[in-house]
Design goal:
This protein has about 290 residues and is α/β, with parallel strands linked by helices. It has two domains: about 160 residues, Rossmann fold (3-Layer(aba) Sandwich); about 120 residues, N-(1-d-carboxylethyl)-l-norvaline Dehydrogenase, domain 2 (Orthogonal Bundle). About 55% of the residues lie in helices and about 15% in strands. β5, α5 and β6 form a beta-alpha-beta unit. The structure holds nicotinamide-adenine-dinucleotide. Nicotinamide-adenine-dinucleotide binds next to α4, β7 and α6. Nicotinamide-adenine-dinucleotide (NAD) binds next to α4, β7 and α6.
């Protein structure tokens, strides 16, 4: 049985860890939220009381944390992974962070003989629960091959897209498309409702045509019901749009719509929707029209 240490058992990490247990991995889980750790233990994993305990004896160490400061803290902070991980261990960070954070982790762990992959995911909570995530991987081919059983347990598609940090650039592109799609679906809903047509039937027919998307498939009902329970929090999408804009600046490309999507997400935060699902861009769009 391959031993996995898993840190970060939130909306995404909890079902991913559960799927690793189901696939036959021995998973020791740690989160600062002790209820999340207890839930993993009830689902066949082992409760770790510290990062050190999760990492001890693990052949693979995984993190699924909100943002850069959490990854820096869990990896390099006091009591962090770096102080306990053994040379030769494979470290997979599924979190969405800045490419330079992934590159820094890879460099520092490389000096310790630890193998590193950045592997941000797409597919949302439903994809994590069903084990069908899309996984965008940066790192070395041999480490990608070694991680394949993990990727098979939590995902449907995994692609090695380049060296360390490359997975994060592809994830940034993903978040641009997702944010843009939500913003336009929101405008479509406002337009249809304001025009007095049956928006539910309208979205159903859109979903079946060229405008169709996973977002229309999975989220149209909750959006029409104004149910913005996360899912994926606006605060996290705000972090991701920052990564998109930084990457565009570094690459010296002009992405005018990326700036608009970022402004919508920023507006949602400013309106107190930071903890709402990112489909709450609909609420921002409605307010623009006084609805
Ligand atoms: P979340 O906030 O639900 O979960 C993060 C978990 O990390 C929490 O349980 C928190 O307690 C834990 N944590 C934070 N700091 C910690 C620390 N120092 N020590 C131990 N545990 C700590 O976030 P999420 O929605 O699961 O997202 C995780 C990552 O996945 C983010 O980078 C996000 O951008 C990305 N992502 C999320 C989704 C989604 O739909 N939610 C989809 C794709 C990617």
């Amino acid at each position: 049985m391959t031993r996995v240490g898993f840190v970060g058992l939130g909306i995404m990490g909890a079902p991913m860890a559960r799927n690793l247990v189901k696939a036959g991995f021995a998973v020791a889980g740690y989160d600062r939220n002790t209820d999340a750790v207890a839930r993993l233990a009830a689902n066949g994993g082992t409760a770790a009381r510290s990062i050190a305990e999760a990492v001890r004896d693990a052949e693979i160490v995984i993190t699924m944390l909100p943002a850069d400061p959490h990854v820096e803290d869990v990896v390099f902070g006091p009591g962090g992974i770096a102080g306990h991980i053994e040379p030769g261990t494979l470290f997979i960070d599924f979190s969405t962070v800045k490419p330079e954070t992934s590159q820094r982790v890879a460099r520092r762990f490389g000096e310790q003989g630890v193998r590193v992959l950045d592997a941000p995911v797409s597919g949302g909570e439903a994809g994590a629960v069903d084990g069908v995530l899309s996984i965008m991987v940066g790192g070395a081919q041999a480490d990608f091959d070694a991680a394949k059983p993990v990727f098979d347990a939590v995902g449907k598609v995994a692609a090695l897209v380049g060296p360390s940090g490359a997975g994060q650039f592809v994830k940034a592109a993903n978040q641009l498309v997702v944010g843009g799609t939500y913003a336009l679906v929101a405008e479509a809903i406002v337009l249809m409702e304001a025009s007095g047509v049956d928006a539910e039937a309208g979205l159903e027919v859109l979903a079946g045509g060229l405008a169709g998307s996973r977002i229309l498939e999975l989220k149209r009902k909750s959006m029409l019901a104004r149910d913005f329970t996360p899912g994926f929090r606006i605060d996290l999408h705000h972090k991701d749009m920052g990564i998109v804009l930084d990457a565009a600046r570094q690459a010296e490309v002009a992405l005018p719509f990326a700036g608009q999507v970022a402004a919508f997400v920023q507006s949602a935060r400013a309106q107190g929707l930071g903890d709402a699902d990112h489909s709450a861009l609909l609420a921002v769009t409605e307010r623009l029209s006084g609805r």
